[in-house]
Amino acid sequence: MSSPIALLPDAQLRPLLDAYEASVRSRRWHTLLILACVAVAMVLSSISAEVSIPKLLDNIHRFPSYIIRLFQLENGRPVWTDVAEWFWGLPRWLRLLGETLLMAYVGTVLGVIGAFVLSFLAAANVAPSRWLRWTVRRFCEICRTVPELVFALVFVIAFGLGPVAGVLAVAIHTVGALGKLFAEVVENIDMKPVEGIIAGGSSWPVAMRFGALPQTMSNFVSYALLRFEINVRSTAVMGFVGAGGIGQDLIEAIRKFYYSDVSAILVLIIITVSVIDTLTSHVRHRLIGLQEKH
Amino acid sequence: MLRLEGVTKSFGGKRAVDQVSLVVPTGQLVGVIGRSGAGKSTLLRMINRLGDPTQGRILFGDTDITQLKGRALRQWRARCAMIFQQFNLAGRLDVLNNVMMGRAFHVPTSRALLKLWSDDEKAQALSALESLDMARLAGQRADTLSGGQQQRVAIARALVQEPDIILADEPIASLDPRNTKVVMDALLHINKHFGITVVCNLHSLDLARSYCDRLVGMAAGRVVFDDVPAALTDAVARDLYGLEAGEVVGEAPPVLMPVGARPGFALAGS
Amino acid sequence: MPGHFPVDLDAVRGRHSEHFQRFGRRRQTALAIAAAAFALLIFAIGELGFFDGKLLAGLGRLAEITGLMLPPDPKDWAHVRLFSSALLETIAISLLGTLAAAALALPLAFLAARNVTAQRVVRFFSRRSLDTIRSVDILVWALIWVNVVGLGPFAGALAIMTADIGTFGKLFSEAIEAADRKPVEGIVSAGGGKFLGVRFGIIPEVFPVLVSQVLYFFESNTRSASIIGIVGAGGIGLYLAEAIRTLELQQTSFIILMILVSVALIDYVSGQLRFAVIGRRGVVS
Ligand SMILES: Nc1ncnc2c1ncn2[C@@H]1O[C@H](COP(=O)(O)OP(=O)(O)OP(=O)(O)O)[C@@H](O)[C@H]1O
Ligand SMILES: [Mg+2]
């Protein structure tokens, strides 16, 4: 069978080929320029971050050996040969893990309440006043940008060592993060019900309660659940600065090279986080399903 | 020669294609018609092996297509070009690279991954594009083209495969009247001049009648009509599409007769 | 208004019983959940020591501390220079960690994506390991890397990289799974193999999405990088923790202000770049 393509004569092909090469060339320059920028940024960063590949290569074997060491008992045997010895501190760790979960829970709830109120003040479509909206937005931004641990450090000075500082730090960060997301949810609602209620002579809170709230509830809950999972992860390290939870035992174990304790605590945290991840995403999917049905 | 023997495809319990047996001689332009859901796309996809039949055999010459695996399967796909309703181009790649995908089987993978096409390959692709009046746009991104232009790129991709057979799954369903004519004329040209077998799913009976050598009508997965276009009377067509006796085939535009197929509208797009 | 519109309530209830009941039951469940949540909250607050009497005193002290933080003041130029270079180091850590994580996460993401990897086992294990990496906090990774490469920003960059491999792996694989399968089908139908399908059918399409996610995380990683100094992994965190511990409160607020400004700046720049890459309407999710 003959080829279905009649090859063009060279005279006709040349200009087409040249035109194509020209268009490719300009794109290629563009790509190279971007790559060059990234490369320069990386080199500068490497200098600043004291990256040294030789040092990494010299030490990289210590990473796997450290990980392997984590899974060895004092006597050098693998941890699973004596699970009771591995998890010797289980009662205490479980208590601290429980405390961590409670901290995450309270921090999330307080944060959700704060974000809930602020979101209606910060949403462009329903906010009662402009300057209030601006202030609330900046406030959320600060709460969100300053890392939780920094709040925790400050709160530990004010409230003393212990979970109260950690809870408040998590709560404040949650207000900032959820305040923004909630406000976006409120901005996306259908305004007709709200206008209808306001037109009926009701006050702003009433209009929010019956006009806006029903439309936002399932999204709020979904975001709150997502945040709870994130907060469990971050309360687990609050103890690093003395703000309660299992983190204090974890950092002590790491610092003092109690290898098998480190892995035991990490295993507990990972299991907890995965269970919560599974549960919350299950509930969230059901919520989304519910929302689509209506 | 393409031969289908009792080809069946079930999705769950449902038979999308049911005991289809056909013989398509080399060089024929076959139109496959039938209402939506009749199993036309499923049939074509099985011939290209984008889907595997649940039962039955597909033979090309002496080769059993349904048994092919690995490299031999890819070789068959290279010989059996496919054109899609939605064009199936890589939108963010430029036109020439999209056409080059038609050489995918012949170019060593390592070279293809780096887009290192040889001058001969580029010349081939550009010539194929030029035959469809598209070579000027070789450097443009595919998703910036109009539907008709994209389909012409897809045809160029099929051409550089140097295929033995072209399968076209409603190639004109998302095109305007003018592009419909361009695309159908291109397929006709490929078929008549190079003797390449073309199997083409169509929704427009008028186009099917005027372009095809033979029409295969499907309903509920089965072949219910197989003859020359002249044998497709209005009564048969009504039957095929499950219309009431009073309805005239020509008056059911969305299924039977796109605007472009009506006389007098043919040049509306130009 | 009885009389105007006579309603035979029992008859209505009889005819639409499911309506009356379901509504009631849903409402009851909601109330029960709310009550349980509230009870748990009260219990937790008690358990965590909120009622120990420290709260009020603490709030007073917090107000005092906040007052002492104002106005932000670095003390002298030497400190400004010190903090600035530490801040640059923080940004460098974040940039390196983010880019390295993206590079390493990409192959993993393909292994974890349903439309690329057919083997369930491979997919399961790559997903699980990504989840495991994700559930360990960045500070823990920082401590581990400090043990491997010693104190300093290098350990910080490695920590950000490790923690982000999990996140990027998950996000990337979701983006890959969301990719249109038509281009891949087009390439496969022409005789192209798996690699070609991925290289030309998927990568060009998802690349802008991935770039946008990386840019987005560059900003949030700068925030994380500003605290890993607390465990000795470089950046401004060290000075921040130091300033808080030694109650140099005006310096503390100055450092926080510097972080806020630089994060806002990076947010702005990365936002502009993201728009340039994916267009105004594309939002990272
Ligand atoms: N991947 C799939 N999974 C389940 N069912 C499928 C699948 N693909 C096709 N089907 C079913 O098989 C039947 C035939 O579909 P097919 O796409 O082949 O019809 P068609 O004749 O091409 O219709 P149209 O003209 O609308 O394109 C339909 O009922 C469809 O629902
Ligand atoms: Mg179809």
UniProtKB/TrEMBL annotation, chain A:
Compartment list: Cell membrane
Main location: membrane
Membrane topology annotation: Multi-pass membrane protein
Transmembrane segments: 32-53, 102-128, 149-172, 257-276
SUPFAM superfamilies named in the record: MetI-like
Secreted found in the keyword field: no
Protein's UniProt keywords contain NADP: no
Gene3D superfamilies xref list: MetI-like
Cellular component terms (Gene Ontology): plasma membrane
Residue stretches making up the ABC transmembrane type-1 domain: 97-280
Keywords: Cell membrane, Membrane, Transmembrane, Transmembrane helix, Transport
UniProt GO molecular function: ABC-type phosphonate transporter activity
Organism superkingdom: Bacteria
Family from the record: Belongs to the binding-protein-dependent transport system permease family.
Protein name: Phosphonate ABC transporter, permease protein PhnE
Name of encoding gene: phoE
UniProtKB/TrEMBL annotation, chain B:
Keyword hit for Cell inner membrane: no
GO molecular function ontology, one term from the record: ATP hydrolysis activity
This protein's UniProt keywords: ATP-binding, Cell membrane, Membrane, Nucleotide-binding, Translocase, Transport
Family: Belongs to the ABC transporter superfamily.
Coiled coil: none
Ranges for domain ABC transporter: 2-245
Protein name per UniProt: Phosphonates import ATP-binding protein PhnC
UniProtKB/TrEMBL annotation, chain C:
Species of provenance: Reyranella soli
Alphabetical keyword list: Membrane, Transmembrane, Transmembrane helix, Transport
Listed transmembrane segments: 30-51, 91-117, 138-161, 198-218, 225-241, 253-271
Pfam families, sorted: BPD_transp_1 (PF00528)
Subcellular location: Cell membrane
Domain of life: Bacteria
Protein name in the entry: Phosphonate ABC transporter, permease protein PhnE
GO cellular component: plasma membrane
GO molecular function: ABC-type phosphonate transporter activity
Protein family: Belongs to the binding-protein-dependent transport system permease family.
Gene this chain is encoded by: phoT_1
Bilayer topology term: Multi-pass membrane protein
Sequence ranges assigned to domain ABC transmembrane type-1 in this UniProt record: 87-267
